[in-house]
Design goal:
With 154 residues, the chain is mainly α. The chain is built from five helices and no strands. It is elongated, with a radius of gyration of 17 Å.
Length: 154
């Protein structure tokens, strides 16, 4: 039996790569995909759900896209706040300001990861609403962009 893997959900971050081109994207994209996959598989295993590969195959690209969209939105609200707080006497890219300023963006991204995955990523699966809630919650908690809270400067 031939399986068609659709890549259209991965297309979202491609335009972002053009805005901020860096060789790091060669590592960031596969790492995010691997982390999303690991969290999904472990959540399915924890919930004792059979047919893990079938669910992974139908949902992973949506989960990956939702994660990037949510991270981008979280960063998009953090960046203007950082710029507004910047002055000659205060640099919000240093610790502890960098961590404090990014907390709302990380929380927003986590909440978006939960709700968007819950609503979009598991439509074509046979999972129950309770299972979808648990998996979406695991994805939100373990894939939120905590790295945003690391200050650029010490």
């Amino acid at each position: 039996m031939k399986r068609d893997v659709k890549l259209y959900n991965v297309m979202f971050p491609i335009w972002f790569l053009l805005i901020y081109p860096t060789y790091l994207w060669m590592f960031i994209l596969p790492a995010n995909f691997a982390i999303d996959s690991l969290v999904l598989i472990l959540a399915l295993k924890f919930l004792k759900i059979d047919e893990k590969f079938k669910i992974w195959e139908s949902a992973i690209f949506k989960i990956f896209g939702v994660g990037f969209l949510s991270d981008f939105i979280g960063a998009a609200i953090t960046y203007p706040v950082t710029m507004m707080m910047s002055s000659d006497n205060f640099n919000p890219t240093y610790f502890p300001a960098a961590t404090i300023v990014t907390i709302p963006g990380v929380i927003l991204a986590g909440v978006l990861i939960y709700f968007l995955n819950k609503k979009l990523s598991f439509r074509k699966t046979q999972l129950t609403p309770k299972q979808i809630h648990s998996i979406s919650l695991a994805l939100a908690v373990f894939t939120a962009p905590y790295a945003m809270m690391i200050p650029i400067y010490g």
